[in-house]
Amino acid sequence: MRIVFITQDEPFYLAKNLDYLIKKLPPYAKVVGTVVADVSPFGKRETFTEKAKKTYDIFGLPFFLRYGLKFVTSKLSKENSVKYVLEKHQVPLIQLENNINKPDSLEKIRSYQPDLLISILGNQIFKRPLLDLAPKGCLNLHTALLPKYRGLMPSFWVLKNNEKYTGVSVFFVDEGIDSGPILVQKKVEIGNRSQAELIEYTKQLGMDCIVESVEKIHSGKYELIDNDASQMTYFSFPTREDVKAFLAAGKRFY
Fold first, then answer.
1. Are the CB atoms for 108 and 173 separated by under 8 Å?
2. How far apart are CA 254 and CA 196, in angstroms?
3. What is the DSSP letter of 93?
4. Neighbouring C-alpha atoms within 13 Å toward the C-beta of 138
């Protein structure tokens, strides 16, 4: 099975999890290429200055300083580099000149002859020609119990809303947002975890769920879980008021 990853150059959690995932994939699954977009944590493309200002304005000085330092440190460490991990595993980078849905981008991805696309932190909306490109479809990892908590930063929202449980969902991507049928889903008790601890745990669990999904697709024997739109909730990026409510509820970022 030939797999193409679609991801972004996220500097905090992704590199070590991709390393873990590639090592755990079964022998018949080969990652033949990866599209790596510029990091876009707010769901849209912004300059580095815009991202930094928004982080400071919304999350405050302590958060800004902690993750600013972590960002700088990550840039100095190869182990935190997505591109370094891919190079270590001899996975080619697929360089795209335009949006992933443009014909030239589709043709470049098609040239790698993928059987399956897997999006991990993919930060573009996928249109039908891309979704139909690989015969076994396109999977996406979302760290929430879909259909609840579609959208951005589910780890923040489940804590702010005092949920007792969250989870991870691996689903087949359709043209909506986190709306496709679910292949693998695991439930997680939140307990007293901080947001950082919750992200850390669910990201690695998500990698295990991707491996399980690949195994199910390979076997051809699986039942899909309905991603019921009537039960959905959707959350966008938090505001400063949301952050104040998060902290007032005794929740911790780290």
1. no
2. 5
3. B
4. 24
SS3 of 118, please? strand
Please give the pLDDT value at position 43.
47
pLDDT reported for residue 40: 56
Q: Which residue is it, tokens 């909730």?
A: 233
Structure tokens given for 153: 């930063």
**What average pLDDT does the segment 216-221 reach?**
96
User: How far apart, in whole angstroms, are the C-alpha atoms of residue 101 and residue 121?
Assistant: 16
Tell me the C-alpha to C-alpha distance, in Å, between residue 148 and each of 46, 217, 229, 235, 237.
27, 24, 9, 9, 16
For 126, other C-beta atoms within 10 Å of its C-beta total 19
By the 8 A CB rule, do 205 and 141 touch? no
Structural contact between residues 233 and 154, judged by C-beta atoms closer than 8 angstroms:
no
Residue 245 pLDDT class (50, 70, 90 cuts): very high
Cβ contact 216:29 at 8 Å: no
Nearest to 170 by CA among 195, 192, 198, 203: 203
Q: Assess contact for 4 and 137: CB atoms under 8 A.
A: no
Inter-CA distances, 149 with 4, 12, 90, 246, Å: 26, 22, 35, 16
CA separation for the pair 140, 20 (Å, rounded): 17
Contacts 24+ apart (CB under 8 A), 74-81: 74/11, 74/12, 75/11, 79/15, 79/16, 80/11, 80/12, 80/15, 80/16, 81/9, 81/11, 81/15
Structure tokens at 100: 């992933």
Please compute Rg for the chain using Cα positions.
18
- CATH topology for 2-248 is Rossmann fold (3.40.50)
